[in-house]
Design goal:
Blueprint (H helix, E strand, L loop, with lengths): L2 E6 L5 H13 L3 E6 L5 E3 L5 E3 L2 E2 L10 E4 L5 H7 L1 H12 L3 E5 L3 H6 L7 E2 L13 E2 L4 E4 L2 E4 L5 H13 L1 H10 L5
Parallel strand pairs: 1-2, 1-6, 2-5, 6-7, 7-11, 8-9
Antiparallel strand pairs: 3-4, 10-11
Helix pairs in contact: 1-5, 5-6
């Protein structure tokens, strides 16, 4: 079974993070919520506290097929400041394993040189951080093993795109229908 890790920092955007968790788990994928702190309870940018499956030091990165970075402020800045997580993002990228980010979080990929020559999207006003990318206004961009999305309003598209990579487009479309999502 494919396994996805979603990383939570204080100030994450809850819809962007939890929509991916929900859709992927409904599709039968293993998803772990990982706190980048040593605390299992992490507060969102809107005061919603969510219990994590693991803290960063418990994560076994060899088990993961994809790393997902939700946006939100100051969540995005907190994710980028975590050296251990950034080392894993770089390693996954270099080895051709999937990495995904939504809203402001694609800026992290831009800062790390990951978006050079790739189509990418992000939250409006963060486009200048997508260094070297062909910036689009699409809801989701998949460029080989790098996935980006624009924000809370595209969270379902993002979740379905991630699920589709591992369970196939047809099953992802069935899930869209099941959740009464109009594409």
């Amino acid at each position: 079974m494919k396994k996805i890790a979603i990383f939570f920092a204080e100030g994450y955007e809850e819809i962007e993070a939890l929509t991916v968790v929900d859709i992927c788990r409904r599709c039968g994928l293993a998803v772990e919520l990982v706190s980048i702190t040593e605390e299992r309870l992490v507060m969102s940018s809107h005061g919603v506290v969510v219990q994590m499956d693991k803290v960063f030091t418990e994560a076994d990165f060899a088990e993961y097929d994809m790393l997902v970075l939700p946006g939100g402020m100051p969540g995005t800045k907190n994710l980028e400041a975590h050296e251990g997580l950034m080392a894993q993002v770089d390693e996954f990228y270099a080895s051709g394993k999937y990495i995904a980010a939504i809203c402001a979080a694609p800026s992290i990929f831009g800062h790390r040189g990951i978006l050079q020559g790739r189509r990418a999207c992000c939250y409006p006003s963060f486009e200048n951080h997508l260094e070297g990318a062909e910036v689009t206004g699409g809801p989701v961009e998949i460029s080989e093993h790098v996935i980006t999305s624009r924000g809370m309003g595209t969270a379902i598209d993002f979740g379905l795109a991630i699920a589709g990579i591992f369970v196939g487009r047809e099953k992802a479309e069935e899930m869209a229908s099941t959740i009464v999502y109009r594409q």
